[in-house]
Amino acid sequence: MKTYTRFLGILLLMLSSLIVGCDQTNPQSPQGEQVETRSNPEGWSSETGFRHATTDVQIDIVETANTSGSSGPSKIAPAGATWLTDMAGGDGARWREAIKVYEIWFKAYVPANALCQSQNVPSSVISAMKAKLNGPSGCSTSCSCSVCCYLANTKILLVNEMISHYNDASCNAGYAVSTPNTDQATLTFMLVRRQCLEWAETVSKQNGGHYRGYNAPEVSASARRPGMGFYKTDHSHAAIVVDIYWSSSGSPLKYRIREANYSPTGWNNPCGSNPWLRVKSSRTITSYSGWKVINYE
To answer: pTM value?
Structure first.
């Protein structure tokens, strides 16, 4: 499939240069000499072939980014990568402490013949779990998109999910289930999916590109191509360009992007989707203010 897609991309570029990219001359110029003019094809690069993805890396990144479904399992960043996970800022330890509260109650009060049944969890246990999710001293409890604390509704979502995962594991493994003891084990236990930057950097690396974080240099307008990163300059969101709408003068007017963890579902740390529900989605961006394009090669 990648070879076929690459062939179509190259064919489109060749046709574009032959049909609409050819030089035109005007023999009736006042100076009596031929004057060269050029008109670029206006439209989406995927349709015109003008300044579309050209390198193998760009083509493969676009193909991978355009797939649907989950953003993929979250991993602690390896050397060279720049993303943070839901475990950052001490949240991993707080998650484990909350799960531990439930584990202690479960093993003390749930009989062996009820391991796979719905549990009537005391409100005191729920409250104790939520208390373990409080941020460090001085962290505001009215925060919005903070990496410092969880709002009340986010705590409820997270505690309920912890209980659900622990119950499922205990139904299969009985009392042998234990609280995860590392950040990576916690991500795996809770089935946490990739946030935006982790998804973008992972897609790049999987397809021969490099890890590129928010501090990567911006690409000039004429050099932008599908298969490059599309990052907020305030470091709040990362996406991948999959198509560009070029004007007849060769200026980028619109960007089609693919992204993960964009659709808000009431989660605040960070703002976006519940960690176990993150999927890839698409948007068309018509205002470039606050964004920059970065090269993964």
So the answer is: 0.84
